[in-house]
Amino acid sequence: MSISLPTSDGLGNWYCNIIRIDRRTCLLFTNEKTLYTFLIPNVKKANLKNIVNEFLVNLSYNLQVEGFGLDIINKVMQEYKEIEFAKTASKKILGSMNQIAFEYAIRVQMKEGLCNIRILETNRDMNKTLRSMLKGKKYFYPIEALRKVLSRVPQ
What we know:
five-stranded antiparallel beta sheet
């Protein structure tokens, strides 16, 4: 599923997958422009019914942990005031998300379960892992790509 916006300004669209890690349901969100990703572990049915709120709250938490100021976070939250859901449009991003989901599963296994990880710290570490959407293209860190996009967001 994709969370889409009418314009491509700012961060643009996010992709969301429901995945299972450590026998628990999790939501994996990935930004289309930066591959910035965060995982929401232990998702219950009630969380899925209010997925927009789960997305916004967790995006805000992750941006705070990354050191973004409230002015930037508020601009990002304003960008997602109106959210639409759409079918996934990019197989490249889905491929990246499959790799990212695998890496999360490995990290959880190394820590011997979801209950032993600090999710905000783990999300931060995952965004400091080199990524590439296309073979032969330049590799980049999602956090650096996110900082670059957010530095262009009008104040």
